[in-house]
Design a protein that fits this description.
The structure is a homodimer. Chain A is α+β, with helices and mostly antiparallel strands. Chain A contains eight helices and eleven strands. Chain A has two domains: 3-155, Jelly Rolls, CATH 2.60.120; 158-239, Orthogonal Bundle (Arc Repressor Mutant, subunit A). Chain A has helices at residues 20-23, 30-39, 120-129, 131-157, 160-177, 191-198, 202-214, 230-239; strands at 41-46, 51-53, 61-67, 70-75, 81-87, 92-93, 106-109, 113-119, 184-186, 218-221, 224-227. A four-stranded antiparallel sheet of chain A has the order 1-8-3-6. At the A-B interface, α3, α4, α6 and α8 of A face α3, α4, α6 and α8 of B. Chain A binds a DNA duplex through α7.
Chain lengths: 241, 241
DNA sequence: CGGCCGGTTGACTAATTTCAAGCAGGGTGG
DNA sequence: CCACCCTGCTTGAAATTAGTCAACCGGCCG
């Protein structure tokens, strides 16, 4: 029986969760973490393709990923989907809902995913007692702003090749942060999702990934990717040739 | 002597500031506003082209605009400017700096601009006493996330025409919120800035604005714009033809 | 077995960029 | 005071990137 088969696996408390350093403030002492633990609803499993919330649902909580991958997306004026983020284990999402008391994005699991739910009202009460928790949450939101602005820059200035190289390298970094391989991983999202996120068509994504493969920058087998020439990829990502 | 010539004009306290409803929480009672007033450094004038802060400056404050216009921008990997937002009177900016304790954007005045500075450390202390202030600030940051994601959607999916029509309508709305004309206004930013923000070249911006003019959708005289066919503009913004 | 979905590949098309030139206004120095 | 220059803006023609359309493949599901 592997770790993830254990029925208790997804019930791990925050203080024991391996992802703590990513998802929780480093500054919380163990006593404070217990308080947070008490309000977190832990480890609900969401199946691939299921929603965690939908746009216009009343905002009530933010969410942390224990395992698995999630995409968040908005619906454009003319009814199309625009993916605004892919979310990795240990990351928090759902903060877009705060300002209007309802979510502006929808969130969908890219694979079977374990989610911790953090009810926002209770969380906010807690921040009054724990100022460092408030600081951490401000930082999380600010981080989200920074991420979004990085995507803005990418969409505004980079070529298709640069966008795809950048995405691969970003995933690589985020994996490394989680002590997973920085060079060999499985893409949780479809080609269509990648194109949608990067403002490209599926065809373009397919062509460029295969070009990278033919050029020896990466090895590609379905969703499995191996980054072979990291330096060349970095060059491609920033400056092209 | 007009209002704005008065040397005290830019020293108006928060409680008296006409922009209060936009920049401050509606929920603060007058007693609480006084507390906020005490920490705000009011009405510094920044001249056109001057910076309020630069990327990598240590983060110490967020800023509110009393009058005038500000653009915020990042520097891309290859040293180019990417404008991430235009900011109007009553708006708060500088929140991107929180997560890394330094600003990730630079902020520059588009014209002579009066700025209120809100030192963040003192502000955060205050939020402990005034939970509604904390709520308001969460909302402001969440709003910023929403705005950025709207721009992402625009850059990812909209044509040049749609982007420009959308920008004009957005400015129109923001003016209306400030009891200014929704149909007749002066663009604070250059054509180059517009192009940069929307992910287009100056030439494209120029061509399309003039096309709108020839089609009778707008009247255009330098930076002065008049929106003539609002409905047609709305159609153009969303669906094109 | 048939159909559907996700992905790939090719040929053609169209949107926007690039390059180049010119124009008007504002400010500066001779 | 005028010539000059610089910047911001405009306009045209050519070049290029990514999109569109269409066909095809393989795996999976009912």
């Amino acid at each position: 029986m592997t770790k993830s088969d254990c029925p208790m696996y997804n019930e791990t408390s925050c203080s024991q969760c391996r992802l703590g350093k990513i998802c929780l403030p480093l500054t919380l002492n163990s006593h404070d973490i217990v308080k947070l633990d008490e309000i977190v609803k832990r480890g609900r499993i969401t199946q691939r393709g299921e929603h965690i919330y939908r746009a216009n649902d009343p905002f009530h909580a933010v969410f942390a990923i224990r395992s698995g991958y999630v995409k968040t997306y908005r619906i454009t004026d003319d009814g199309e989907e625009q993916i605004t983020g892919f979310h990795f284990p240990g990351e928090i999402f759902g903060m877009d809902g705060i300002s209007k008391s309802k979510y502006t994005n929808s969130a969908k699991a890219l694979e079977s995913t374990a989610i911790c739910e953090i009810p926002f009202a209770r969380f906010q009460e807690l921040t009054v007692q724990l100022p460092s928790l408030q600081t951490h949450f401000f930082q999380l939101m600010s981080q989200e702003i920074s991420n979004d602005q990085q995507l803005i820059t990418m969409l505004s200035k980079k070529t298709a090749e640069q966008r795809i190289a950048t995405l691969l390298l970003t995933i690589s970094e985020r994996n490394a942060d989680r002590n997973m391989s920085a060079t060999h991983f499985r893409l949780a999202m479809s080609r269509t999702d990648i194109g949608n996120y990067l403002g490209l068509t599926v065809e373009t994504v397919s062509r460029i990934l295969n070009r990278f493969y033919k050029e020896g920058l990466i090895v590609l087998d379905q969703k499995e990717v191996q980054l072979v020439e990291m330096q060349a990829l970095r060059l491609t990502a920033n400056l092209d040739e």
